Amino acid sequence: MIKEKLKYLKPFLIAIISIFVTFSLNMNMDYNIALNYSFSGNSILYVIFFIMTYWLLKRLLEIKNKRLYIIAGILAIVFASFEIVGNSIDTYLNLDGILANNIAITKSIIKWIGYAIIIFGVIGNIFNVLEKKDFIKGKTKWFTNNKRTFFIVWAIIFIAWIPYFLNYFPGVVSVDSMSQIMQSLDMKTLSNHHPVLHTFIIGIVMSIGKLFGNYNIGVAIYSILQMLITSCCFSFAIYYMAKRNVDIRFRILTLIFYAFYPVNGIYSITMWKDIPFAVAMLIFTIMMTEIAINREHFLKSKLKNVLLIISILLVILFRNNGIYVILGTIPFMFIFALKNYKKLIVITCIVLATYMIWKGPVFAIFGIDEGSIREALSIPLQQFARMAKNEDLTDEERWRIYKYLPTDDLPTLYYPKISDQVKNHFDNEAFENDKIGFIKLWVKLCLKYPRSAVEAFLCNSYGYWYPESIHWVVNREVYLSDQEKEQALGLKNTPIVELESLEKFDSMIDRRDLPLNSMLYSIGFTFWVVATCFMYAIYKKKYKLILIYIPIIILWGTCLASPVFGEFRYIYAMFTVLPILIGIHLREKESKEL
């Protein structure tokens, strides 16, 4: 009798919940506006939204799967929290949107519940669909795991990028690029602030340009080489997915993404260390995939072991935070391939020995400056600056901060989203002389002023987890400062062919006001996708697949401590490896051959 009553009561309860969700997501979060004046839902779209919410929840609750509810619930709680906290930080640059008054607290709770419910419904249904989906291996003549297809796909991607090269000839050169160019030409002291390996590569192509009496030729050679190598690796990723029986429809979508996603086209001709690093991360992720799903065959293959070693070294040498990615991933490699620990020990020793030789004798021979640690201390320095601006510090506390940041303008220099203005005043020598004192001061002030410490961290990192955050994505020109112009390098953009249609197409990168299009360039949204795929592996109890996600999650974690709140190029690797992270779940079956 009770079950019969619940059967009729259930649709009514779902309808009430759907109405609540519709109201909560329409609510204005301004804490100065009373709750009963916070709605503007005079639109037929909210009727449609109510119906969709009802359908999602009804369909999900028909599935009797406790594990599904738990995993989807965890993601819903985390993502809903990201939305509420991120909105407050993005709007006010503090937590006032949540904590300012009773109105803010009430609205935040209501909105959070609404977000959690709808996200729970969406993710639960996605997991259920994936679980029942039949995937197509795609035994076709032209798009499979053969060499012919590999070269055709490589050519398609490369050709798709040629218009960018013609329109932005000789390539995109940013502030960082110019610094490396000048270092490579002995116009600046060689420093590992930008990875030296990348600077050496730049030096080779610029030397060729110098032989021709035109440095633009050097930049053009770099652009072409980067286009060739990047498109080759992207083609290899698609080739690998074919080997692993990933659904052919997804492989076609991956080809479209690699070839026609405008960021890939512009980045292919951009002289940044982040692009070769992202490519190295792609190959490294593929190697982790092999260890996860084809361990025995992988570790017996000398070629794959060599590829693993090379990819690890390139990850380390193309970005300074790459070492953290590798050191964080190695323990998981041993966990998931413990039976082959001897071979992994050999590989690890080769990598670490090479790295130490590079950082030791090689740096000493070329007189390479290690660079300041201030980049890694961006968050603590931002926290000091925020405290100096917002808190009533004692004279002793101000003096101790001044020891490491010797400037009286610290409160005015503080910009919550970017640490450059603050960290440029960092006294590296003072830190080296008293590292323990710095750590003690940081811990003491964070405990005394926790809100400022938390808000400083959130403001300087929210772009990596809040989907609606907006920051620039690409450069499109050669940058020259006054100092660089004085060197008479002669670098400038001189389009071979001016393509207005291309510029209109890639201008979509900047149109973050357009629905759906905005999420294509959102770091936060892409991280949500990665996190969802990671949790799906746990839901399916495919724990060995966790290894595949470890490198990009660690990289994402290092970005939280970076100088900028949401720098696309820092996390570009997450976009290059995304097809692998998704595709691993879209396979017909696991195969043993490769």
Instruction: Name the average pLDDT.
Output: 92
| Series of H and E elements | HHHHHHHHHHHHHHHHHHHHHHHHHHHH
Q: How many domain regions?
A: 3
Share of helix, binned? 55-70%
The low-pLDDT segments are none
Give keywords:
0% strand, 594 residues, mainly alpha, 28 helices
Topology readout:
Elements: H1 2-26, H2 45-61, H3 66-92, H4 96-99, H5 102-132, H6 147-167, H7 175-184, H8 196-211, H9 215-243, H10 248-260, H11 262-267, H12 274-293, H13 295-300, H14 302-318, H15 322-336, H16 341-366, H17 378-390, H18 395-404, H19 410-413, H20 420-423, H21 428-433, H22 435-448, H23 450-459, H24 482-486, H25 500-506, H26 523-539, H27 546-559, H28 572-583
Helix pairs in contact: 1-2, 1-5, 2-5, 3-5, 3-26, 6-9, 6-10, 7-8, 8-9, 9-10, 9-12, 12-14, 12-27, 12-28, 14-15, 14-16, 15-27, 17-23, 22-23, 26-28, 27-28
Structural notes for this entry:
The chain has 594 residues and is mainly α. It folds into 3 domains: 123 residues, no CATH class; 173 residues, no CATH class; 216 residues, no CATH class. The protein has 28 helices and no strands. Helix 8 crosses helix 9. The N and C termini lie far apart (59 Å).
Provide a short characterization of the protein structure:
With 594 residues, the chain is an all-alpha fold.
